[in-house]
Amino acid sequence: MAVPVPAEELFLIGNLPVTNSMVNAWVAIAGFVVLAWLLRRPKSGAPRGIQNAVEALFDFMLGFMDQVTGDRAKSRRFFPVVGTLFLFILLSNWMGLLPGVGTFGLNAEHGGHLIPIFRPATSDLNMTLAMGIAAVVMSHVFGIVHLGFFRHWNKFIQLGTFWKALTGFRHRSPADYLVGIFVALIELGVGLIELVSEVAKMVSLSLRLFGNIFAGEVLIHVISSLVAFLIPVPFMFLEIIVGMVQALVFSLLTLVYLTIATSEPHGEEKESHDRKSHDELVPTEISTVAAQI
Amino acid sequence: MDPAEAQHVVEGVGVAATLGLNWKLFLAQLVNFGLVLLVVWRFVYRPLMKVMDERSGKIERGLKDAEESKALRELADIEKQKLIVEARRQAKEIMETTEADAKSRQEEVAVKTRTEVERIVTDGKRRLRDEQEAMLKEAKAEISGLVIAATEKILREKIDPKRDLKLIETAIRSAEDRA
């Protein structure tokens, strides 16, 4: 009766099991392919119909992203990742509310319960973990491209401070060396904690999305099996909002990670005349707000 | 392996399995997401952004052109106004100079005419006087000849001509004085 936590296997292609949530991911891919096909020849004149709608959406999203990045060029660079995440998650979440998703199914050979053909792609931990890892890895890729390999990784494995402690400023006594090395050791520890938090980002991103959407599925399932008519309606409205909010949270957090990864490291801030100090505030504020959701 | 540790590992695998984690499925979903990313990035985002950039470039250019042409038109208006004022001023000037010219020429003509008339008059007067004088002289000569002839006829004898002429002249002068 209840929805099982893992996505269920429908059939095998060679060695690869095909689950019901993968079917939904394919449907979503097909949706995006259709969208791309409809927009295959965009006109640079006055846009009409679907092109106009997508352009307006993109423009709105870019404007929204500007509030976090504070820089249109950065927003545009991050848009493919963040925008795709948002649209894909939103589509997957809302597809779970369509009639037929979770209801049509194959009869399992053993156990005898119904295996639905469709299940929201985001209610599969494999999917959300894939997106979470992809998002965090992307943030590191952008960070390396933007700051350079050493400067980016020096945020996590802070060997630069040792170098500075030993050579950077003219020391007068051995005590200065000791203090410098002590500070460098602390910073190394902080960097390692940051490294752990990178893993935590992946886990929290994927579990938050999975938990919310899966819980929604279960909720709707349970409510509809209690009373099939009318009563599930408010819950479905709730799920529409939850689907939207979760898509927003996931993509916004990814945007914040991307922004932080491409901003100047803290240690070098004093040397670069505090030019990033204002931008730095915004993403951290938003990330704490978003994390609370 | 320590049984407790083994139990722990099994539990760990168990949690992952309960949540449905499976590396094959994970990879498949990663590929799925990659496909979505590719489609949206390569086939939706990039061409649309290109078109949108083109359009905003065009609009910006259009706005700039409009601004420029507006400025040009204003400039042309000012120029036109200036030209009109200048033309009016010139026309007025021409009129004024023409009028003044005409007046001065009229005056000149009048003056010339007057002097001409005066000259003619004085000329006439002089010529009249000259003629009068010439006539008088001629008459005098004629009269004197006549007188000579007359006296010759009267006297029939000529004293010497020098004395004769003097005599005649005195006679004429006395006659003139009497006249």
From TrEMBL, chain A:
Domain of life: Bacteria
Entry's Gene Ontology BP terms: proton motive force-driven plasma membrane ATP synthesis
Family named by the database record: Belongs to the ATPase A chain family.
UniProt membrane topology term: Multi-pass membrane protein
Source species of the chain: Candidatus Uhrbacteria bacterium CG_4_10_14_0_8_um_filter_58_22
Pfam families xrefs: ATP-synt_A (PF00119)
Main location: membrane
Membrane-spanning intervals of the chain: 20-39, 78-97, 129-150, 177-197, 209-230, 237-260
Entry's localization field: Cell membrane; Membrane
HAMAP family: ATP_synth_a_bact
Protein task: Key component of the proton channel; it plays a direct role in the translocation of protons across the membrane.
SUPFAM superfamilies assigned: F1F0 ATP synthase subunit A (SSF81336)
GO cellular component: a single term: proton-transporting ATP synthase complex
GO molecular function ontology, one term from the record: proton-transporting ATP synthase activity, rotational mechanism
Name under which the protein is recorded: ATP synthase subunit a
Gene field: atpB
Keyword Methyltransferase on entry: no
Keywords annotated in UniProt: ATP synthesis, Cell membrane, CF(0), Hydrogen ion transport, Ion transport, Membrane, Transmembrane, Transmembrane helix, Transport
TrEMBL record, chain B:
TM regions (residue ranges): 26-45
Cross-referenced Pfam families: ATP-synt_B
Keyword Transmembrane helix: yes
Keywords, sorted A to Z: ATP synthesis, Cell membrane, CF(0), Hydrogen ion transport, Ion transport, Membrane, Transmembrane, Transmembrane helix, Transport
Main location: membrane
Location relative to the cell: Cell membrane; Endomembrane system
InterPro entries according to UniProt: ATP_synth_b/b'su_bac/chlpt (IPR002146), ATP_synth_F0_bsu_bac (IPR005864), ATP_synthase_B_chain (IPR050059)
Membrane topology category: Single-pass membrane protein
GO cellular component: endomembrane system; plasma membrane; proton-transporting ATP synthase complex
GO molecular function list: proton-transporting ATP synthase activity, rotational mechanism; proton-transporting ATPase activity, rotational mechanism
Function field: Component of the F(0) channel, it forms part of the peripheral stalk, linking F(1) to F(0). F(1)F(0) ATP synthase produces ATP from ADP in the presence of a proton or sodium gradient. F-type ATPases consist of two structural domains, F(1) containing the extramembraneous catalytic core and F(0) containing the membrane proton channel, linked together by a central stalk and a peripheral stalk. During catalysis, ATP synthesis in the catalytic domain of F(1) is coupled via a rotary mechanism of the central stalk subunits to proton translocation.
Subunit structure: F-type ATPases have 2 components, F(1) - the catalytic core - and F(0) - the membrane proton channel. F(1) has five subunits: alpha(3), beta(3), gamma(1), delta(1), epsilon(1). F(0) has three main subunits: a(1), b(2) and c(10-14). The alpha and beta chains form an alternating ring which encloses part of the gamma chain. F(1) is attached to F(0) by a central stalk formed by the gamma and epsilon chains, while a peripheral stalk is formed by the delta and b chains.
Name by which UniProt lists this protein: ATP synthase subunit b
Gene: atpF
